[in-house]
Design goal:
The chain is α/β, with parallel strands linked by helices. Helix content is about 40%, strand content about 10%. α5 links the parallel β3 and β4. Pfam families: dCMP_cyt_deam_1. Keywords: Metal-binding, Zinc.
Length: about 210
């Protein structure tokens, strides 16, 4: 077997504009609404600049509220289907902290914040990350209805399964503001200005 053409590493990172946005914010966001408002702004900007879908996420240190990492969807920019906002934020936090476990003994607990409910892929990523809390803007069908994205075969009792594993779930922070971003994204898709990167054979632009 000739392995000379094999890829041996892959990577994905956040664009410079995300850091520019974060530079305007305090290290500790004052309220839950402030945190979600930041994510909604990042998700809205992300699809407008062609990085990926209208999704963003961040990891916070529980108790202090310190922002550890922020991620946006990078599927189109990286050409890696796994680089959803949650995976990006969790991976960047794990890189910064030098640990795959966001709930490791001797360290602070961590929370994952997202501007909507995780998809089927990110559901697993959250489970294995070690976070103690998930905070989301909403969990209804609006993403699939408005954006044409296929979120995968999610369990109806997904939140209960998180709680059974010790992951607290908070739903409904700035829900309507988050939904408006999905409406804006759909307008871009309908105008041919955005790509829906579903798996082959599903959705729009598949």
């Amino acid at each position: 077997m000739d392995t000379s053409q094999f890829a041996t590493v892959f990577s994905a990172g956040i664009p410079a504009w995300v850091l520019e946005e974060l530079a305007q914010e305090p290290e500790i966001l004052p309220t839950a609404e402030d945190g979600m408002r930041l994510l909604i702004r990042l998700g809205s900007r992300n699809f407008r600049v062609g990085g990926g879908g209208p999704f963003s996420a961040m990891v916070l240190e529980s108790g202090t509220g310190k922002v550890v990492s922020v991620g946006v969807n990078r599927v189109l920019a990286s050409q890696l289907s796994a680089t959803h906002a949650e995976v990006t934020a969790l991976s960047l936090a794990q890189t910064r902290l030098g640990s795959w476990d966001h709930g490791a003994a001797g360290g602070p607990a961590h929370e994952l914040w997202v501007n909507w409910r995780p998809c089927a892929q990110c559901y697993g990523a959250v489970l294995w990350s070690g976070v103690s809390t998930l905070v989301i803007a909403g969990d209804g069908p609006e993403v699939e209805q408005l954006t044409y994205f296929d979120e995968g075969p999610m369990r109806e009792d997904w939140a209960e399964k998180f709680r059974e594993r010790g992951i607290a779930v908070r739903i409904g922070v700035l829900r309507e503001e988050a939904v408006q971003v999905f409406r804006d994204y759909r307008a871009h898709v309908d105008a041919g200005a955005a790509v829906v990167y579903n798996a082959r054979g599903t959705g729009v632009n598949a």
